[in-house]
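Possible regression after last week's pipeline update?

I re-ran a chain I had predicted before the update to compare outputs. Posting the input and the new output here so someone can diff against the archived version. Not blocking, just want to make sure nothing changed silently.
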Amino acid sequence: MSEDQFIPHPSSLIPLPHPSSLILPKPLLALGLLPGTMRGGAPSVSLHGWGRSVKRLWLVDYLVYVVVRVLICAAQAIPLETGAWLAGGLAWLFGDLLRVRGEVVDDNLRHAFPQLSDAQRHRLARRMWRHLFLLAMEVAQAPRKVRDTTWRRYVRLRNIPGLMRQFMDDRPTMLVTGHFGNFELGGFMLGLLGYPTYTIARTLDNPYLDRFIHRFRGVTGQYIIPKSGGYEQILEVLGGGGIMAFLADQAAGGKGCWIEFFGRPASAHKAIALLALENRARLAVVYARRLDRPMQFEMVVEAIADPHGCDGELRGVRELTQWYTRRLEDAIRRDPEQYWWLHRRWKDTRPRHRQEQQRAA
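New output (post-update):
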């Protein structure tokens, strides 16, 4: 892979589709939500005005894509030391001046670390913002710097041999991580080491960005399974003894599996535990944490569990979900500034009597 691969050239930009190739959404036609349609009966469709509107939508998507490519070029051209300084300035802008999701971040930190003062939470929030901007710059530069001949300059491995042995047998492996450290680099590195992974992600609304991200992740062997309609592909990967990777720290709503995360009830997706139990898969909690300098990481296997080899302790969905959640929490407590405190992880909307039942269980 040449160093120019991720620098956009006019000939490499995704071409803008011609309006004639547009397929109008049938549900909108049937409901009469497009110009010239009628509610009930056969729709009478007039594209006058609508065609221009659709063309503007495609143009906006394409312009957003071009802006993102230009920003990636800028991030690639900036030395990492300068990038770290710039990340600090952006952290002040977003965290202190604009207060982007400031209430959410402060509420999360107040519950996760009740012993911290207001000033300490404020400093931790700023360090989190710096981490996020630095993460973006590291992801942009990784394909040009971290290669099969140079990765040892940037990445250390800890507790890896046991995981490598798992990869070599015929049973599937499920990697569990969270929005912690540089999770994009973790998948990048495994592909670089010769272990392709599959992960689930929602298809982006912007088709140009979606294709670009797929190409970026696929450089070393990270393959994306669409969140909608990808269940058969997941079973195929696990049935073939492959490696599935999951971001396991997202709220799953009222019907999720309720576990404890930083001492508070949190809803987690049941699918990870169910897939492991039904497909004889082993689970490994993994992450890539940044060390003392930009683009210096430690890839860590925090713990490995085999639900089929234990004495019943992890053979239930809730027990297995709580196990890997606790391991992620342990890692986050050691480096809290490397966690995304931006999202509402705790959304307990259940009736009060069900919350009390959960605490008593």
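Follow-up from reviewer: compared with the archived run. The longest strand covers residues 282-290. Marking as no regression found.
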